[in-house]
Amino acid sequence: MIRVLIAEDMHMIRSALVALLSLEDDMEVVAEIERGDEVLDAALRVRPDVAVLDIDMPGLDGLSAAEQLSARLPGCRTLVLTGLSQPGNLLRALKVHVKGFIVKDAPAQTLTDGIRRIAAGERVIDPELVAAALETGSSPLTARETEVLRAAASGNRVAQIATQLSLSQATVRNYLSNAISKVGGRNRIDAIRISRDAGWL
Amino acid sequence: MSGLAELWRSDRVLRLAPAGAAACSALLPVAQVLLAFSYMDNDARTGLWSLAATGAYLPLHLRHVWYAAHARRPPAGVWTFAVMAAVILGATPLAGNMWPRSYAALVVSALLVLPAPWSYLVYVTVAAAAAPIGYALGLPWTSAPWLLFSVLAGSAALLLLVWLPAALTRLRAARELLAQQAVAQERRRLDDDLRRSLGRALESIAARGEQAGRALESVAVHGEQAGCAPKSAPAHGEQAGCAPKSAPAHGEQAGCGKVGGAVPEGLPDELAALADDSRRTLADARQRVRGYRRPSLRAELETAATLLAAAGIETRLELPRGGVPDAIAPQSRAALRATVTRLLRTGAVPSCTITVTSTDGRPRLELRTGEATETIEIPA
């Protein structure tokens, strides 16, 4: 019996996933979570074999939750449900040892098969996601530029970002300007949008 | 059409402008040689020296002008400028007292070839020296200011003629860059629009189709459990306890499920087919969107290497010094993606080397994973 934890913030989809997996003879849903920051605690409590995580959740995104799981509960394999709109997330997912990366609009059979294969130790990655990631390319931003742009995406002003990251305001402006130019944005907002769409933030 | 004609005219001007600048730059030295033969005070030897020196420096000067008019610095420009300066200055005592007029070409070349501030220094020094040198060579003191004026005015006119086509070239390059950026922006907009409109609409169709299929299936199952019509319902009414065959709405009678009994034959299959069709259309739409983007092979290989490395496969990318072809055929691209997907899925490969080689001018891609080597031809 494969013990599955499901983390999805949308109630209807979560219920549908639970109902779907409950129909499988070899699977048991042991936990349903609606926030990303609750995943680790729940997983430590119920010790699932596979954690099915939505990529966008309140509190903590699916990939960050997967990173925590990989560090604290290495025996639990993670499968992340994602959209095709952020192909850059595949790279981040591989870095945090996500074993499965499936698009949300895949047929239901893909999910159940994926859980079985992940539980058996295989890696499941949608070919469409690989194609999209190869087309989008790696992030052109350096780690520092990503950090500064992420801070700007949270609504912080230059002075606040400078304080947070222990940089001068001029340096923050330089990083932002470089990031805007590298991703081909018209301004800061556009650069944040492009980077988010590509999954670079 | 008028836009295209305008573009063609501006391109023609751009092609002719450097030739015009070179022709004008040749005109003054040629006139200088003719004058060297025609001045009353000069003998034939002065004219011949002037002719020989001009023949030696003029090609170098025209080379500087030609490159500068194309907004480029001439290769080994400092050395050719040094030779030119040696010829002009060396001929000064031999080619007559009007020879310092040729300093106009020297200062123009200095400004085109030498980096600032050395170019300005040479310009000011040489231009200022023209009049005293002319005077020392026997030019009347009243003519010396005119010599200075002719050097300054001649060099200014030539520089204007050179800088104008150079500015046009830079403008054209900037225009091309802007056009490329506009195209990239437009592709991104199309991508976003398709994703927002078509993508969402089709996703919604697929989800609704699936949902309806499941609902109908479950209703049919309930009907069956209640001793009513089974899922494959041609004979619902024939079942015991249900409506007779002749009844048009058999499910509504005899306590059977209201909807369960009314499931038309084949509807769940039809809805499933609808969901499949929608999914296929969505994949087609995505493929079309991908068609707008043509990532370079190099970028794709670098991303592949990054992805494989992130998956724990030690990956080395070996690219030829001569560069990688920009575009590859869709089949080769698909083969590369399939291989990368397979490697990412298996994850059991410890290392991978991606090499681009060229045999008989035909580039090919090799992916070596331990013992196995996969070769992909890259027809452009």
TrEMBL record, chain A:
Residues 3-119 form the Response regulatory domain. SUPFAM superfamilies: C-terminal effector domain of the bipartite response regulators, CheY-like. Coiled coil: none annotated. The modification 4-aspartylphosphate is found at residue 54. Keywords: DNA-binding, Phosphoprotein. Pfam families: GerE, Response_reg. This is Two-component system response regulator DesR. It comes from Nonomuraea angiospora.
TrEMBL record, chain B:
The chain crosses the membrane at residues 20-40, 47-66, 78-96, 146-168. The keyword Transmembrane applies. It comes from the Bacteria. Keywords: Membrane, Transmembrane, Transmembrane helix. This is Signal transduction histidine kinase. It comes from Nonomuraea angiospora.
